[in-house]
Amino acid sequence: MCRWAAYRGEPLYLEELVTSPAHSLIEQSHCATKAKTATNADGFGLAWYGDRPEPGRFRDVLPAWSDCNLKSLARQIRSPLFLAHVRAATHGSTRRDNCHPFVHGIWSFMHNGQIDHFDRIRRPMESMLDDDHFNARVGTTDSELLFLLALQFGLRERPIAAMAEAVGFVEQLSLHLTGAARIRMTAAFSDGVTLYAVRYSTDEHAPTLFAAPMGPKGSYCLVSEPLDDEKDTWVEIPAGSAVILSENGLDAAEFNPVRERSLQPEARLEAMAG
Amino acid sequence: MCRWAAYRGEPLYLEELVTSPAHSLIEQSHCATKAKTATNADGFGLAWYGDRPEPGRFRDVLPAWSDCNLKSLARQIRSPLFLAHVRAATHGSTRRDNCHPFVHGIWSFMHNGQIDHFDRIRRPMESMLDDDHFNARVGTTDSELLFLLALQFGLRERPIAAMAEAVGFVEQLSLHLTGAARIRMTAAFSDGVTLYAVRYSTDEHAPTLFAAPMGPKGSYCLVSEPLDDEKDTWVEIPAGSAVILSENGLDAAEFNPVRERSLQPEARLEAMAG
Amino acid sequence: MCRWAAYRGEPLYLEELVTSPAHSLIEQSHCATKAKTATNADGFGLAWYGDRPEPGRFRDVLPAWSDCNLKSLARQIRSPLFLAHVRAATHGSTRRDNCHPFVHGIWSFMHNGQIDHFDRIRRPMESMLDDDHFNARVGTTDSELLFLLALQFGLRERPIAAMAEAVGFVEQLSLHLTGAARIRMTAAFSDGVTLYAVRYSTDEHAPTLFAAPMGPKGSYCLVSEPLDDEKDTWVEIPAGSAVILSENGLDAAEFNPVRERSLQPEARLEAMAG
Amino acid sequence: MCRWAAYRGEPLYLEELVTSPAHSLIEQSHCATKAKTATNADGFGLAWYGDRPEPGRFRDVLPAWSDCNLKSLARQIRSPLFLAHVRAATHGSTRRDNCHPFVHGIWSFMHNGQIDHFDRIRRPMESMLDDDHFNARVGTTDSELLFLLALQFGLRERPIAAMAEAVGFVEQLSLHLTGAARIRMTAAFSDGVTLYAVRYSTDEHAPTLFAAPMGPKGSYCLVSEPLDDEKDTWVEIPAGSAVILSENGLDAAEFNPVRERSLQPEARLEAMAG
């Protein structure tokens, strides 16, 4: 399990999420209180939108708490839309190419969660990518591949729907090849204009996702864990939800992975049990 | 172009090739005289055989000349068979997973050269791997993939023949998909008992390969460039050759990539020209 | 607080302490149970004695659990005397030069603990070093400086006595300049023949130190925390003790920092209170 | 010898100096044409001024050409005053703390050159620093120490004069302790408002320094080597000069290290010869 924070609104210094709060992302890298993994020390990353359509990105492999570059950049850079991530590795070694956020053109993506049996389904997942998306793969994580698959399935045109298709497809693959599917995720992604997030799990244990207003009116942050102890501030987003932060403020929708009915995990498992 | 050195014989401190000679591998990382790329500063690696069947491995991304760990290890470790490499990146970013030597079970492999149009043929090359070899791929270099392909084609049983098949297959792929094939390589590989090397190019510009006796009788080193200016010591291995260092001493053979006649580069290009 | 393990006896693969046990040093880097700091992810290091008088050394800044080089080296290298360390930074940034063990000629040293008010006494500590020891300082940690001070005070000739003088001197400096002295430490050091360790604190909270026989008769390891749950195996070394592992087996002695009586912390604090 | 570039004027993307020109700083890291050291692969750094009084800073140890973070940051960050540096190590190991620019409060500093016999004069140089400046030292380079010495001597109030005093003092130290003094340098430093540079050598071989207008009227860059082959654009600054870039445009002055007459190198050497 990793930890992340994202923001959309009036330009804000990255440090307001990354280093300053009581439970800042750097603080969480040392000691996350709600996550299953106590330490998120396998690298970190930032993607922020500025003057250009494509985001800036900064990733490195040291624990976030000991990286001087991260502190200085978070203090200097101000952005109206950014994603920040600290990693606890599940799949893929500790190297920059495996650190979130992943970026493709103007799109950025980061993820907290797990795809069970990834080793078994990695290859057919990769086979769905066209040459451009295939050649864009530089790391070995399940997260990067899920991002590329969603891009392949139309993330640019129908962000939430394409992500739902990608997740549903991964579930189907897993059911076909392993007889079971377990995906737990909170992911955030953006094109620099709108910020999207989804919280989802095939079981009852979806990783947490919270939203809170931050700074000027109409500005919000989305986080895997609250950044402080002000319980009234943070709204927990229910599992099976998508959140859309745009110029219209915060919007929410259901998030239902698209899959054929007969392949739903419950149905299949019942069938197997029967 | 990268630089490498390999040794088989009586146990020798790695520093005898890596740091001590006038043109040691570290010295070459700063200023290679025969290589096309003046600087080989995109990481380095060692694979050495000791008490265990599988080799030890040490790789890192700093220039070899500034890595204290490398100097200390090369001074302490003594081995009867080892491979050492300094990298100038052509394909794949600068990270440990892309540094040579690559290791799979008891086998190690390192490479200096280039496969033209690798971006176009990477995918069908990967598609030839069975699940085990596919899942063993952790980096993005052409070299690692060539190694896995040779393993797939039987490197364990017929080392030189399998490498010839792998290289020939890559040429065919390239001809089919790009209308041309250019591969230049000097590669070394080993199972911990025998040390193999090949020098080959589709054109007249095969990277250099030299052999010299070193230390006690029956001990030899193979290098991409001589380690000192004693011209009488170093024998240049001709292009299109394989070298085998075993308990029987140094042996040589032709190295002819296996490909269908009608797909030979010359033929195909003539056909295209016609 | 850091974690460490050291060994002296018949040649042993480093992995027997570093990666294999239930509470191996790598396991402890993720989750130390007795230490105050839960995570020791600010680098690691090895110093081992082999054929040469001076030890080999390997240090790096990633968390120990994610470093492939460490795993491979620990699996390949066998040594009759070695030190291994995982770091949780207190003084000095995360970089190789600040990772233990420190090495000077044939001597190696590693440390777990803290010197309060180090920023106030660093300069006079450095001023005690002669040019050779001063120029040998490459990092910014209190640990490296304590090691150099002990060398300056005669570690080569009278290891335990010189360490006691160094610690006593640091206490005096702290009392003079800050009115208080608090040092907590477990340190191990060696010349490649004998392995020394001390456990000491100015208060009741000396970091733990345990000893256990390991492998063939006459071989022992010393650790900051037991490497497994076999409670009968591990003997806790009392605070105020030195342990000496030599060809004569395990020996223990009192460890009393040498300082002028009138400057003892208790006396001084009483005086101040009076 | 290192390479550097600095800019003051209308806000400019850092990539205009760092990555885009024909002889950009990254290009020079691979192959500097006028410098003595062909490769500047021992790390790099940026310091840029933005909304805050103190500069942002980003430094790392990989060769500049292979660092993805550097490319992304240089493309995103726009600043009215920045310093950029690629390093070829002379004194001090390859680690972030030894990479330029150095920063202290609002001041930044970077340097290309050498101080002969630095090992002999390092200690008395450090002894001139008051506690605050002493404790600010985190690396081991001559450059960082020269910067701290200039701060100690009044860089904040009289930038050029204090630098001249610092350089003169270092010459004196070297003469006293080694009987000779050789300093070659081009340095740039700034408080975020004004950009200063000096070119100086005790002999005829001062490292090069060039100035050119860049972008909107009143904007200039200073570089150790021209960034392109437009010879008419680049004005070479003579040795023994200081350059001041402020809101008044480009100004120049003599740069004469302040030292007692009897200790001038020529005098001293004459005296010794006599």
From TrEMBL, chains A, B, C, D:
CDD domains: YafJ. Keywords: Glutamine amidotransferase, Transferase. Coiled coil: none annotated. The keyword Transferase applies. PROSITE patterns: GATASE_TYPE_2. Residues 2-274 form the Glutamine amidotransferase type-2 domain. One of its GO terms (molecular function) is transferase activity. The keyword Transferase applies. Pfam families: GATase_4 (PF13230). PANTHER family: GLUTAMINE AMIDOTRANSFERASE DUG3-RELATED. This is Class II glutamine amidotransferase. It comes from Peteryoungia ipomoeae.
